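Friendly challenge for the regulars: who can give me the structure tokens for this chain first? No prize, just bragging rights.
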Amino acid sequence: MNPTAHAKANGINSPDNRKDAGEYYWGSSTISHILTRQEYLGHTVNFKTYRKSYKQKKQLHNDPSEWQVFKNTHEAIIDQETFDIVQRIRDGRRRLTPMGEMPILSGMVFCADCGAKLYQVRGRKLPQSEYMVCATYRKKGKHICTSHQIRNSVIEELLLSGIREVTGYVREHEAEFVEMITKKSKAETDRGLREAKRELDQSQTRIRKLDDIIQKLYEDNVDGKISDDRFMKLSETYETEQTGLKDRITELQDIIDHEQEAAANTDSFISLVKKYTNVQELNAEIIREFVDKIYIYKAERIGGKNVQHIKIIWNCIGEFIPPVKEKTA
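First reply, four minutes later:
Bragging rights claimed.
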């Protein structure tokens, strides 16, 4: 039963907008709402809304950063991995083409030079006339970025080959794979931590210096060395900078905490490999389970041929190219 029918069956009076759809019809808005809620992971989420005053009935929405999440308070009906995949699909903002089609690569492909998304264009010739181009090139012109044009079929072929290559290597060399990803993750984490901690120290030092400047301004204003108008303008400027630095410090602290806690989730990727033992054809689900992003590079003329590289960023493990094993005689 859908939620409205379930409520009525249990004696709960609920607004009914189903018309003649029946007890087992689920509207798209209901599904969309469910797919955004952490409660279905078994968590309790508080402080989503607030009221300006107890006299006002209207509820306002808090920023998600202000929510309080209490994990594992009740039985989950969706696992975290599936929920994360759903969020990646929704974040990709897949769009229908003018012909009503939903490209399986929509929202997944990015320009390696400007970072903009590539979106699908249909050529005049059929078949295999669908190709992707850089959004910056189409909207702002070739003086900003080149087209990075590439056929959908080429991306899908390279992606399928990449998935087979990576999964084959993981199945045959699981221990080596875990060791390689662990080392790679530690190196990236250490580098990220160093950069975040350096910026954090600089921001904290600047905040302390601004405190001294504001204190000096106040004393100069009291002594009559600067006017009230001048004092207000300067102090407002410095306080605005302080507020921005404090917000950035909060972000940096979150980054540091995440980096310290995060490790390459090799177990999840290995489980995924075991789930798909023999991928013969791609679909939107398989792509989003394996892939985070795909970057397309500008085509180059090498040895009289056009060569175009792509880079695949895998979920859980980031960029990974299986080592080539030397053939023995």
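The mean pLDDT is 83. Residues 174-222 form the longest helix (49 residues). Your move, everyone else.
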